[in-house]
Amino acid sequence: MKLLLIEDDVATAEYIRQGLIELGHACDHSATGLDGLTAALTSSYDAVILDRSLPQLDGLSVLQALRAEGQKVPVLILSALGQVDDRIRGLDSGADDYLPKPFSFQELISRLTAIIRRGEGVAATPTLRRVADLELNLLSRTAKRGDRTIELFAKEFQILDYLARHAGQVVTRTMMLEAVWDYGFDTGTNVIDVHISRLRSKIDHPGEPPLLHTVRGSGYRLDVR
């Protein structure tokens, strides 16, 4: 997942961001409502984690501005304002869910997964992503091909998930760098090629139709061809 965290408390923001990164997710952080709104309007995210009490522009104003611009990105409000009236106001302003502080990190992840799933409109097997006989479990972050379990590191899973989300399409190195590493990365680096090489050795075994293809001069594609 590529997420935007809008949170002004430094300790809370670092705790959440570090936890998300350890799970293999990409996470941008904005410390003010205005910066957060700008980021949400100019970049693409799977979901936004939004505090209510923010400098420059409060969380509900950020949310209302997003919805007024037609942004349908799932938004989870994470706030110390946890009374029933607070939660109702947040949901009525356009939030997809509301989690009061203090919170469980595991519950935060579960709620994010749920609102993203609802936003994608997935009904059957909502926690799975499949390409041919390759299956990714988005909750346990595990992969298998047929009956064979594939052991992946966090970044490898994130790259594979991104490729699976764009199955059949050419994904460029720059697209993967922006989606997976989530910061200004040297586009001349070979980090993508190294990870792809490792992924290919794990995914495509002798006797199996190749799934991970190099599109010379363009990037990579995940499908059976």
Automatic annotation (TrEMBL):
It holds the Pfam family Response_reg. Residues 2-116 form the Response regulatory domain. GO terms for molecular function: phosphorelay response regulator activity; transcription cis-regulatory region binding. The keyword DNA-binding applies. Residues 126-224 form the OmpR/PhoB-type domain. This is Response regulator transcription factor. GO terms for biological process: regulation of DNA-templated transcription. The modification 4-aspartylphosphate is found at residue 51. It comes from the Bacteria. One of its GO terms (cellular component) is protein-DNA complex. SMART domains: REC (SM00448), Trans_reg_C (SM00862). PROSITE patterns: OMPR_PHOB, RESPONSE_REGULATORY. The keyword Phosphoprotein applies. Keywords: DNA-binding, Phosphoprotein, Transcription, Transcription regulation, Two-component regulatory system. Residues 126-224 bind DNA.
